[in-house]
Structures are given as C-alpha cells and as structure tokens.
Amino acid sequence: MAFKMSEKASRPFKTIQKFSGQINDMSLNQRHRICVAPMMEWTDRHFRYFVRLISRRVLLYTEMVTTSAILHGDRERLLGYHAAEKPLALQLGGSNPTELAACARIAEAYGFDEINLNVGCPSDRVQTGRFGACLMAEPELVAECVAAMAGAVSLPVTVKTRIGIDDRDSYEELAHFVEVVASGGCRTFIIHARKAWLKGLSPKENREIPPLRYDVVERLKNDYPTLEIILNGGVVDLDQAARHLERLDGVMIGRAAYHQPYLLAEADRRFFGDDRPVRTRRQVVEALLPYVEMELRRGVRLQSIARHILGLYHGRPGGRAWRRHLSQYATKPNAGTDVILEAARYCEE
Description:
There is one protein chain. The chain has 349 residues and is of the alpha/beta class. It is 41% helix and 12% strand. The chain has two domains: 28-272, TIM Barrel; 281-347, Four Helix Bundle (Hemerythrin (Met), subunit A), CATH 1.20.120. It has 17 helices and eight strands. It has an eight-stranded parallel β-sheet. 45% of the residues are buried. The active site is at 121 (proton donor). Its cofactor is FMN.
C-alpha cells in the first residue's frame, strides 16, 4: 500500500447558483485544521453564509445529500450555494459506486472543494438505504465507492465514520476498515470518537450515550502517520481543539459551533495565521442584512435564516432577549430585517 504505519506500531490486519471559483489555496491538511460538521437540518446554505461572516477559513460542510436526491431531484435546491460560503465540502450519502461517481462529477461542476462520504450516521432511515454507519461492516464496498469517486473527479474524497458499530468495536476492526478504505484512495478520515449502536439508540442518543474514545483516534493517527486523521465528537471550544491538534491533523466541531457560532471568531487567527480583523457580533449582524434582504426578495421566510443566528450572542448581556425577540417575531408573515435590528438593540456592545 502507498501508506504505512509507524515503525513502532504492529499491523492488526494485512448556490443558489452554480459556481466555479478559484481552487482554495490552502493545503488539504491546513484546510481541515478546524471544520464545522455536517448536520441535518442545520448546516444549510443560510447557516453556512452566516458562519462565513464569522470565520473566513474554517471548512464548512453541507448537510448530507443522498445520491438519489441529486440524480433525480432539484439540484439547484440541493446543491446551490453562495460563492462566499467556500471553502465548502459536499457530504454524500450512498453506497452505489456508479451513482456516487456521477454525483461527484456533478459536485465538481458546482465548484465544491471536497466530496465526503457519510459512513457515520446511525439512523434507521439511513440504514434502510444502505449507507451511513452500517457501511462500516462493508469496508471493501466503501473502498470501491471511494475509488469510483476519486477516479471520476480531481477533488479530494474523504470519509466520515465512527470508531465502530454495535459489538464490532475493536481497534483491530477499525484499523482494518481504515486500511481497506485507504487502499481505495482515501487519505482523510474524519473520525467521530464514539461507536454507533445501529439498533436500540436514536441518532440523538448515539451522539451522547456511547463514550468518547479520543485515545482510539489518537492511536489511529500514531499507527497511520501518512493519513490525515480529523477528530469529531464532543469538542466544545477552540482551547479543546488546540489540545487535540497537538496529536491530530484537524478537529471538526458540531453542535457547539451551531449553538455558539461566535466561538469560531478567533479560529482564523489562531489556527490559520490569518491576521485580518475579527468582526464584532454587531458587525456580523450588519454584514448579514444584505443577504437577508436578497433572500426575502426571493421569497424566503425570515425564520428560515433567523433560526440559525439565535446563538450569536450566547453568554453575552442581552443574549436571552435577542433569542426571545427573534423567536417571537421572525415567524410572523412579512417579517423583515427590522426584526433582526430590533433584536440586536438588546445586545449593544
């Protein structure tokens, strides 16, 4: 194989619109230093545009989109995004190599920076479609899927997975999975440091009940130093991310970045060497207003955007009043940008 383990390790097993912008100038490794997890019903294009006003450099992911939806559905609605959202990765759900390759080509034409295969979602609906975490039991198929996509596009193809499923949670099985998938051309693995129970736990419980095993992810990086290993799961702030980056290549932050988005404000300077001034929360609000006005003219309801910005003033004076005002008035017919400005008055900095 092209990659190898460290010598001291023992091997356990042998737009809104189409956009073709400039390729992001960050190396793959630097791009993944801090990224925001794909989250269903949360990381839509409105949320991504909002986050990009806080951080220019963190890598953003779409919600998971299935291959059948792309091949047979409304592609503009599913894949459209604003150019400002880049760098942006598309997460795909599927297990048919031919269909995944076709979707990868479509994604490349739309200007995405990365294709990520979901091998971590444990929901019953996903299992019925034979994708998500259940694919950990079929590493050869995952490798075939990765090889088909990598052969179809020039984009990096990455895999987001768990450390195990059900009783198949030994380190040897995880290492075997990584070895086989890497042989298909994957060089970046985003590892949710919990195993998944495919039966008996809801998706929410699968994010909370199985214990976090950061040691397993660190061992994987130690044993496969030429692979890029990104940690996901339980990271709540940039200080914790910095500690993980001492041993790993990158950190993916999920719900903490959604509920407290301003925690990303220092990420560009701290992890990417970007010394441009950080926007204040008020400046973020003001920068968002033209986008909101544009979307309202397109027929989008204010609530579709306002729901993503509730956490902007988390932990700040007036933060509760900000959330309450948006929750109460953004849902009303014909609600406009004045609702956001009125809410911001509770939080003058």
